[in-house]
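Design review, sub-item: ligand-bound model
Attendees: FS, YL, KQ
YL presented the inputs for the 2-acetamido-2-deoxy-beta-D-glucopyranose complex:
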Amino acid sequence: MKATFSAAAALAATFSLASAANSIPTCGANSQCPSDTPCCSQYGQCGVGAYCLGGCNPRYSHDLQSCVAAPTCQSADYKLNSLDDVQANTVYLGDSSKANWVSSGTPVVYQNDAILLTMAPNTVGTLLMSTHYVWYGQISATMTTSQGAGVVTAFIMMSDVQDEIDFEFVGVELEVAQSNYYFQGITDYGNEQPLNVSNTVQNTHTYTIDWQPDSLTWSIDGIPLRTLNRNDTWNSNTQNYHYPQSPSRIQLSLWPAGLQSNGAGTVAWAGGLVDWNSQYMLNGYYYALVSEVKVQCYNPPSGFSNNHGSKAYYYDNSYGTNDTVATGNNSTELASFFATGDNPSVNPNAAASGTAAAPKNSATPETVPGVSGGGAAGIGGTDSSGNAQSGTAAGSAQGSQSSAGSGGSTTFQQGLGSSGTSQAPPKLAAGSAVALLGFFVACLLL
Ligand SMILES: *[C@@H]1O[C@H](CO)[C@@H](O)[C@H](O)[C@H]1NC(C)=O
Ligand SMILES: *[C@@H]1O[C@H](CO)[C@@H](O)[C@H](O)[C@H]1NC(C)=O
Ligand SMILES: *[C@@H]1O[C@H](CO)[C@@H](O)[C@H](O)[C@H]1NC(C)=O
Ligand SMILES: *[C@@H]1O[C@H](CO)[C@@H](O)[C@H](O)[C@H]1NC(C)=O
Ligand SMILES: *[C@@H]1O[C@H](CO)[C@@H](O)[C@H](O)[C@H]1NC(C)=O
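KQ shared the predicted structure:
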């Protein structure tokens, strides 16, 4: 172990990031993950650790136990005025009593009053996700958006089987909130509807999703603007209602849709390429501001009979439809970033050095979706000083002008793949400050 950081180490790290990214096993319809990397992330890649937590798709994972059960709905009024309730995705291991929010990218506290989702040059922005899921409820976010070509702000509900309910804001249309929904990620261009709103950058608005088993209403500042009835979403090909119907996380995000590496349709939808020297950046980054999120949980739907406890949601069948959702007293936690739902107590760092079945470098599995590098986060996150490390990363990220990605070719992907114009999730080559720091720290420990 040598505590000297060098450009050579950074370069080596960059190369291993790039090569690891290429060899990550993929998953999707008719190709489930293998047993050694059993969890299919929302980006369609297999791994362990955080791959098995929020976003883990039970339909494409190795088996129905691979994805860890998800914390059930919790009614709450979250004042987002500090990062005390936010854990980085390189730290969170499923204990929702420790944090109600998980982040990737760089959230920044603004005047002890709100959280800024920031997007510095050559980063892929910031994503804030609830640790508790919602299976029907009323969810409100009070926020302002970012602006500029290619810059997208979003407040969405996203399930592990990729049902989705969206408010999306394109940075060149400041008087439009795009409402949208998906069933299991199936693209349907007819689902999007624009809603009128006064300037979303200058004016703080409260956006509300009222999600019931048979109807869904989008409201702005308490005024209902669109209602979707489940019975109008019947699809005779799949013999399903194409209606969002599975437990979903709240996701707030700011991301660069306008990147050359994205599809032309996505770039056009987003109003063009992102300008990284924009007048709309302050302190070196684009930003959206979220001050409050309110959640009111609804009771499970009438007729619900898969009730075996109230702690966690899971699926008892890989169809992933409403009638395959169950609740139980399952644990929602992993012992380390090398554990999986199939094997939740695996913790290489807990065993005496040399005797543990610690994954070898050459075959190290991916542990955090979007953060390539073979278990880097796992090593950092499960180390006894894991918290200190992440604290450093988060601390330096907070308020920083963030040199994120300076050496980076981390494959870092955010949600919102089905943003209306592209089938494939945005696959981006850029760096995340927190991710890269975590990785470099891990290198130093080797
Ligand atoms: C949750 O617990 C039930 C037993 O109550 C079990 O059948 C099921 O496999 C568990 N699911 C997960 C994902 O842990
Ligand atoms: C929304 O705004 C457009 C453009 O100003 C206008 O034509 C349209 O009538 C408005 N729709 C509603 C429902 O107010
Ligand atoms: C669909 O449901 C709504 C609300 O429950 C109801 O008003 C409407 O008549 C239904 N439509 C059809 C075609 O059944
Ligand atoms: C699931 O949806 C169907 C309609 O597709 C409905 O009849 C049924 O009651 C729902 N079940 C649950 C548990 O929500
Ligand atoms: C789940 O936990 C609750 C509360 O502790 C308990 O009342 C219930 O019996 C448990 N359910 C099962 C199936 O063990």
